[in-house]
Amino acid sequence: MKLKLLIFLISLQIGTQVCAQTADLVNYVNTLQGTNSKHELTRGNTYPTTALPFAMHTWTPQTGRNGDGWKYQYFKDKIRGFQQAHQCSSWSRDYAVFSFMPMTGRLVVNENEREAKFSHEDEIARPNYYKVRFENQITTEMSPSERGAHLRFSYPKGGKSFLVLDGYTGLSGVTIYPKERKITGFVNNGEGFKEGFKNFFVIHFDQPFKTYGTWENKENTIHANETEAEGQGKGAYVQFKDGAKVQVKVASSYISMEQAALNLERELGADKTLEVTKERAAAIWNKSLSKVIVEGGSEADLATFYSCFFRASIFSRKFYELDKNGKPYYFSPYDGKIHPGFMFTDTGFWDTFRAQFPLNTIMHPEMHGRYMQALIDAYKQCGWLPSWSFPSEAGSMIGNHAISLLADAWAKGIRTFDPKEALAAYLHEATNKGPWGPANGRDGWKEYYQLGYVPYPDYREATAKTLEYAYDDYCAWTLAKMTGNKFYADIFERQMYNYKNVYDPSTRFMRGKNASGQWTSNFDPVEWGGPYTEGNAWHYHWSVFQDIDGLINLMEGPQNFTAKLDSVFSEPSKVNVGTYRGMIHEMTEMVMANMGQYAHGNQPIQHMVYLYNYGSQPWKSQFHVRNVMRKLYDATENGYPGDEDQGQTSSWYVLSALGFYSVTPGTDQYVIGSPMFKKVTINLENGKKFVIEATNNSAENVYIKSASMNGKIHTANFIRHKDILEGGLLKLEMSDQPEFTRGIASADKPFSLSLGK
Ligand code: CA
User: Secondary structure of 648-675 in the HEC alphabet?
Assistant: First the structure.
């Protein structure tokens, strides 16, 4: 075991012994998980998110330059700020950021020169509390509220004590009120945060200002005694008495300065000390994390599980605020206007339709219901369904996966939206190309309908698009069918088998095909890019979420199918960089994992380990799922096998650790794998409990010998959402030997369109 992990676990035990009775789960979470990342190689591309669940604003220390997507990198030893952050991924950078930086001795505003050295030994990183002591003896602490934070800066005795407020990379403004010990202002910076949008902030200090002034961060010019400034990167500074201990309450709003003040008053107003905010944040996290109680694992396993569950509970963020009567309303990033109701944003559906949203249907159905209505509202506001929201429509990646969320919600009993409106919005989405990026509307839609596939090289990533469009069309078909809408069911029924049109029987791979029906020449299954998205033919072969049995038929039987699943792991980890022309981090991560062509560090193949269940070899899914959990995840700064991606890679772990996975969102089924713990209790919002008990479970005993659901023998390789919702007991008997006679009947297979169930 790595020394750092050991130290972390020892500190954990001390923490949990003290608070054992109160299920102090937040102390299992290490927010540094996945932060040891850089451009060429990511171990998560996360930052130490200090925030409440799905909160509007989050807080983090900053080691990178203003505007850099790598805002906190574990291997760095200097911090230059503590910032309000909204970033989904290093690749997308951030929006609406501002930051604080304390310094002692003299005022230094320049972001490069004001950096202060620290060591991870002097750092505590939990969701409800972040603390770091610099070498210069300044200590900074932060605890979050939903739309703000409570910070405390403790300066060393005898030195001058300054605090800089940095207006970051775009237009900003500040007003200093020395008598009231207050600063107000706004920022507008970053991706998808359009011109004219403002993130208004209000900051209260509990100590008087000795001196103050404004500055700007381009030339780093300082204007002492000035109380107002507006322009590019304008900020403020204040000086406190020497050796001061200063508490700072800050909140912000996208609606107005008045709303920012209301957010501050409501969320932090009564908090006399940071400890109050910290304890409340701990209680909120403990309540959220205790939706799943796991037992019978090692302390390291618990740390991994709750760290992943934390990361699965950040995106999509709540983008709404509460007016003075407590009614939700929001500034819409889609049309720039104020609307009543709920809004959520900051996620890429290409990543998160797979597991993060299905996990929310179990853990947060009320919030998820609000979200589904918000999707339709977003469509009404900007004319398109969201696909990558950050915070407005970014249109990154591929597919029209909003329909996956909507169909999945409906299949699971969430009835908060009008399915006719959803289907009309989707039909528009699927028969038009939108203005913002490849996944806004449908790239190649005409050819997709005319030819039954998107031709390559006419369209980039065409085969991946065909596969994902066909799955999305299945989702529309099933939503139409569930709601008795023959008109839409007929339209999409014709398209949902289109995956067959890009299957090449001679190589048994999904391949690029041109408009006249010829396969792309010089085929190399380990070649990345071209007709695929961030992957190769080995990865995209399995993107037939809606009809795995149909894929088995195309491959002429389950033997060929399971042999190919085996080959994913036994093939060499060879990379042909293809149209990427050089190694991208996903390739490096696949090679490092040393699991053949299995590239768990990226989304396309993440469901693949579960597919043995469709080929009557469920024991192989059980083996591989446990192997992936054990090998590719832990709670450290290196804890992910690649980009975490807005909760998706964490949600894979959370669901898998529970013992099942959402292979086909849009159905009410979860495919069984092998749970990580001896006992798991899911505490549902409806007050019921679903328990998974795995007798004799251990690192070696990963195979399911027998199973029962509520006392009845359970041979199926899946469970249903309603099994979970109604509460009950899934009892598994685990063994170190595969059980070759279990889960092999046709009736045991999970949903496939071709099976008609
Ligand atoms: Ca990814």
Answer: HHHHHHHHHHHCEECCCECECEEEECCC
Q: Can you give the pLDDT at residue 11?
A: 54
Give the model's pLDDT for residue 21.
Answer: 44
Are residues 241 and 109 part of one domain?
yes
pLDDT higher than threshold 50 for residue 605: yes
The pLDDT, as a whole number, for residue 6 is: 56
**Are 121 and 213 in the same domain?**
yes
Q: How far does the centroid of ligand 1 lie from the alpha carbon of residue 586, in Å? A: 8
Mean pLDDT, all residues of the chain: 96
The Å distance, Cα 587 to ligand 1 centre, comes to 11
142 φ, ψ to 5°? -140, 135
How confident is the model at residue 18, as a pLDDT?
A: 41
In which element (H, E) is residue 10 found?
helix 3-18
Q: Which helix (H) or strand (E) holds 265?
A: helix 257-268
| Predicted confidence (pLDDT) per residue in 138-156, tens digit | 999 999 999 999 999 999 9
Q: How far is the CA of 687 from the centre of ligand 1 (A)?
A: 35
Distance 585 CA to ligand 1 centre (A): 10
Could you tell me if 516 and 718 are in contact, meaning their C-beta atoms sit under 8 angstroms apart?
Answer: no
Number of CB atoms found within 10 A of residue 525's CB: 18
Q: Looking at residue 341, what DSSP letter applies?
A: S
Residues with CB under 5 A from ligand 1 (ion): 602, 643, 645
42 close to 70: Cβ distance less than 8 angstroms: no
Separation of alpha carbons 262 and 392, rounded Å: 25
Length reported for the chain: 757
Which domain covers residue 471, as residue numbers? 346-502
- Taking only the tens place, the pLDDT of each residue in 368-382 is 999 999 999 999 999
φ, ψ of residue 549 to 5 degrees: the values are -65, -35
Is residue 207 a part of any domain in this protein? yes
- Mean of pLDDT values over 722-740: 98
| Cα–ligand 1 centroid distance for 327 (angstroms) | 36
Does residue 567 lie within any of the structural domains?
Answer: no
Nearest to 680 by CA among 689, 671, 672: 689
Distance CA 607, CA 542 (A): 8
What is the average per-residue pLDDT within 230-247? 98
Whether residue 230 sits in one domain with residue 85: yes
Residue 23 makes CB contacts below 8 A (sequence gap 6+) with: 286, 290, 293
CATH code for the domain in which residue 144 is found? 2.70.98.10
In a domain, 436, yes or no: yes
Q: Quick one: pLDDT band at residue 1, thresholds 50, 70, 90?
A: very low
Is a pLDDT exceeding 50 seen at residue 17?
A: no
One-letter amino acid of 97: V
| Same-domain check for residues 160 and 257 | yes
Output the 3-class SS for 150-190. EEEEECCCCCCEEEEEECCCCEEEEEEECCCCEEEEEEECE
Q: Is the pTM of this model over 0.70?
A: yes
Question: What per-residue confidence (pLDDT) applies to 177?
Answer: 98
Measure 534 CA to ligand 1 centroid, in angstroms. Answer: 8
Q: How far is the CA of 410 from the centre of ligand 1 (A)?
A: 27
pLDDT at 433 over 50: yes
Residues 375 and 271 occupy one common structural domain: no
pLDDT over 60 at 9, yes or no: no
pLDDT at 23: 80
Residue by residue, DSSP assigns 434-499 as: -SSSTTTBTTTHHHHHHHSS--TTTSTTHHHHHHHHHHHHHHHHHHHHHTT-HHHHHHHHTTTTGG
Number of domains the chain contains: 2
